[in-house]
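Researcher: Let's do a round of design. I'm pasting the structure tokens now; please hold your answer until I've finished.
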């Protein structure tokens, strides 16, 4: 179970700015959130140590790198014992085409987001990661025809 971290106004301002642009220097960030550079650096380090900031990454356009087919996949397992759920999650963690994996309630056991170059790549993924697994009972995939919103920001 995750523990919520208490954030003050300065922490929230830092997180808000960094969610828009994590490439800022510490001095630029400090100026935007109206604190000194040493205070800003100390705050960012604490947010990283506490796990509030998980990663600082570049968001790559799937279409520009040849992975423009997005699939939203529902997976239902035959056996939902804790170790079988964990086995499936571990297998999905190894699949680079699986960009997100959620264990969900009421309905399928998992919802995945996958990014692949084309339908042939999806079929290869589906065979390797879903149908070849002995515990997968049902796979239902929806393919995106238009992405109207994509955001990585978390409301703070």
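Researcher: That's everything. Go ahead.
Model: Designed sequence:
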């Amino acid at each position: 179970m995750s523990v919520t971290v208490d954030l003050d106004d300065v922490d929230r301002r830092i997180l808000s700015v960094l969610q828009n642009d994590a490439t800022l220097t510490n001095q630029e960030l400090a100026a935007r959130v109206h604190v000194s550079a040493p205070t800003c650096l100390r705050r960012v380090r604490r947010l990283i140590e506490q796990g509030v900031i998980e990663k600082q990454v570049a968001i790559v356009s799937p279409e520009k790198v040849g992975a423009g087919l997005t699939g939203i996949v529902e997976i239902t397992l035959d056996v939902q014992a804790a170790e079988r759920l964990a086995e499936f999650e571990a297998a999905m963690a190894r699949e680079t085409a699986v960009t997100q994996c959620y264990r969900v309630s009421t309905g399928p056991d998992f919802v995945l987001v996958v990014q692949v170059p084309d339908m042939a790549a999806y079929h290869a993924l589906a065979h390797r990661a879903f149908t070849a697994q002995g515990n997968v009972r049902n796979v239902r995939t929806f393919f995106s025809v238009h992405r109207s919103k994509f955001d990585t920001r978390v409301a703070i």
